[in-house]
Design goal:
Elements lengths: L1 H38 L6 E4 L4 E7 L3 E5 L5 E5 L3 E4 L4
Antiparallel strand pairs: 1-2, 1-5, 2-3, 3-4
Length: 89
Amino acid sequence: MNNDLLSSLMPLVVLFAIFYFLIIRPQQKQQKEHKAMLEALSKGDKIVTSGGLIVEIVKVEETFLTVKNIDATTMRIARTFISSKWEDA
């Protein structure tokens, strides 16, 4: 009986381990890197918003950033809408 229970649960354990290492762990790592990038933003950095705008940071606040567009107009954007930091190639 014990052996049957163990052999029937083994595929589920293996499946969960594969699921964890292929999906959950990389996603947690990506979230951690994104959070670190958001915390490291400073005045003068260029960012890409989730809408695709490339803007320059003018002022850093706790939950918002004041940014300058290419035509020098300023706007406030929530940190949650920042997709990535723009690196000029």
